[in-house]
């Protein structure tokens, strides 16, 4: 544990994370609690906190862990969960979300974290940070509990856009592989394309085209292409990165979360019924806690926006201190790894390789 | 328990189910074991069993429960899991699958059950039974463990087709509601349309069109339309029938199954580690068994093909006796309820109502 290491000399090397304090379901208190957790476990981190200064100032003052490591940037307005992205794009200036993103644009922070409205965050990130050269559709990548040694797989897009063309799938593959290399420490991630069957003749036309391009770009993008994968493979150890369009990815993500939640509730019910069961639950408390930790969505909190000139981490709207701290940890890791520059280089070279495949037409189609 | 009630007088009232004995992963022995289970628990059921007579005859003879209640129809050929649907359509005559479907076509059986190749079963069902008048795309409906009092929701399409237009979604809604009325005994099922958000302005264009038609056909189709639902609502008590295209539905189904399997395995692991945990698991055995029973995919085994002139139940390829018996129970319930005639009437009247909405253009679009 480290706390209160606030000498200016150390501060100079710190990784700065820009944090939107407002707009989450639990308000700024949960966000500040997350900063405190992060500051305790990571002595090389500092924060730019955006929101209502009158509210934030006393909250920060209460925590010595944050002394000298958290600068407040006043923003009077808040993006709510009900605001439409199109409105926020026009009138978002002066909100804490806009201000938090602009700190990354200005190079003052290595990444931005927000618990706010996903659509608005993506819209503002697009207009303020702009897309990386060569990227058509940015994507949101999430982590998914899996049977792999690291415990997680990457899936994208889980909701930035509702459709994707063949070239978009290739870009998702390239960006997802870069994320897995820097976020999960995998040298050569295995990438799969989500489909309704693993046979090459199955599925939608754009998926067959994407299959060829993803296979051709294997070397340039630095991944191993395992071909089509199915829904059951998402939590498996067959693959590290699952590529899909934002509509399908969002449905899969929420279906998985809903199923896990149902089972957890049924489990609680089962152990709550009858004295013997309650006793057993007490005895098994450690086992159950281990399991819960493994599938706890708060621990893998943080959808990363890929394909922009800046790293944006979207925390769950309902995130508590643990969830916010997880999102900040992820943001700091990506900021430190030089992830963004590497990703930009891969997108450029993989794009050329995929294009060659499209032109040569060395198709695998039936 | 009832067994051996084989007098011809009773046999005359029996519900006859046509069963494809071949093509499942576990071979005909698992299918025959399922017949035995079904015969024991349902004295009013009889079977037409299709497959290799030399193999089936001695298997049937061993079980007194099946005496006088199981007629074998010899079919020399088998559709394998690797056969392509297009090939089976051309050359499928003489297979046990073809023969099993034809018994329904000829009116000899009230429904057909097969553990074989899904694509081939759908293709053969289409050409032998033909689509119901007014149905454009038949669908596969599955049951999904849920928080509803009955314990299950219906989702369709989970893989008959990879795309769907606005009018298809309306037909799925109508057919799914009819299935929920007759299969889950719900008077006025609540129907939701799967999307990436519940706001009306979100999602693909065909979903916005479908939204209007499904709302307009509420009365004619006999359901309550709850609007858009998300992936997390699939196992919820907000809705009874979830309508989606076959691509998305298949991914959601397999993602849910994969997630449940992962958690079950982690749970086993957690209770296997350490003596105290093992002891607790023993104490909690009944609780854990109750939970397992609740989410056991074998108990809800049976995808139903909707929109054909005949009831077809697709059992999991890997189904064991319990799984096959569940599929047969479902087939018998649908055969007895007069489901097919009612469904045909609903499709006709809902189609007219949805068409009126399209013509009048009383749109909810932005």
UniProtKB/TrEMBL annotation, chains A, B:
GO terms for molecular function: phosphate:acyl-[acyl carrier protein] acyltransferase activity. It comes from Gemmobacter fulvus. Homodimer. Probably interacts with PlsY. NCBIfam families: plsX (TIGR00182). It is an enzyme of class 2 (transferase). Belongs to the PlsX family. It is found in: Cytoplasm. Its EC number is 2.3.1.274. GO terms for biological process: fatty acid biosynthetic process; phospholipid biosynthetic process. Its main location: cytoplasm. GO terms for cellular component: cytoplasm. It catalyses: a fatty acyl-[ACP] + phosphate = an acyl phosphate + holo-[ACP]. Pfam families: FA_synthesis. Pathway: Lipid metabolism; phospholipid metabolism. The keyword Lipid biosynthesis applies. This is Phosphate acyltransferase. InterPro entries: FA_synthesis, Phospholipid_synth_PlsX-like. Coiled coil: none annotated. PANTHER family: FATTY ACID/PHOSPHOLIPID SYNTHESIS PROTEIN PLSX, PHOSPHATE ACYLTRANSFERASE. Keywords: Acyltransferase, Cytoplasm, Lipid biosynthesis, Lipid metabolism, Phospholipid biosynthesis, Phospholipid metabolism, Transferase. The keyword Methyltransferase does not apply. Signal peptide: none annotated. Catalyzes the reversible formation of acyl-phosphate (acyl-PO(4)) from acyl-[acyl-carrier-protein] (acyl-ACP). This enzyme utilizes acyl-ACP as fatty acyl donor, but not acyl-CoA.
């Amino acid at each position: 544990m480290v706390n209160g290491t606030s000498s200016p000399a150390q501060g100079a090397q710190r990784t700065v994370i820009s944090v939107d304090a407002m707009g989450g379901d639990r308000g700024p208190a949960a966000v500040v609690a997350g900063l405190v957790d992060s500051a305790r476990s990571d002595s090389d981190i500092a924060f730019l906190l955006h929101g209502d200064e009158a509210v934030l100032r006393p909250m920060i003052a209460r925590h010595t862990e944050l002394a000298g490591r958290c600068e407040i940037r006043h923003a009077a307005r808040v993006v709510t969960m009900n605001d439409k992205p199109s409105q926020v794009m026009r009138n978002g200036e002066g909100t804490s979300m806009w201000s938090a993103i602009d700190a990354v644009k200005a190079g003052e922070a290595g990444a931005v974290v927000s618990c706010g409205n996903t659509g608005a965050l993506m819209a503002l990130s697009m207009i303020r940070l702009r897309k990386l050269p060569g990227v058509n559709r940015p994507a949101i990548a999430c982590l998914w509990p899996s049977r792999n040694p690291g415990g997680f797989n990457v899936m994208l897009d889980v909701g930035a856009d509702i459709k994707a063309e063949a070239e978009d799938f290739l870009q998702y593959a390239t960006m997802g592989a870069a994320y897995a290399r820097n976020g999960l420490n995998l040298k050569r991630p295995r990438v799969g394309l989500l489909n309704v069957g693993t046979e090459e003749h199955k599925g939608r036309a754009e998926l067959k085209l994407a299959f060829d391009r993803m296979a051709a770009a294997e070397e340039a993008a630095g991944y191993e292409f395992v071909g089509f994968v199915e829904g059951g493979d998402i939590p498996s150890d067959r693959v590290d990165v699952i590529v899909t369009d934002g509509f399908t990815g969002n449905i899969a993500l929420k279906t998985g979360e809903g199923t896990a939640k149902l089972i957890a509730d049924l489990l609680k019910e089962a152990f709550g019924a009858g004295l013997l069961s309650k006793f057993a639950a007490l005895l098994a408390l450690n086992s159950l806690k281990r399991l819960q930790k493994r599938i706890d969505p708060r621990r893998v909190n943080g959808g990363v926006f890929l394909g922009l000139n800046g790293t944006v981490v979207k925390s769950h709207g309902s995130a508590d201190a643990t969830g916010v701290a997880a999102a900040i940890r992820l943001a700091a890791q990506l900021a430190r790894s030089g992830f963004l520059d590497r990703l930009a280089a891969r997108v450029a070279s993989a794009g050329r390789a995929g294009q060659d495949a499209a032109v040569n037409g060395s198709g695998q189609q039936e």
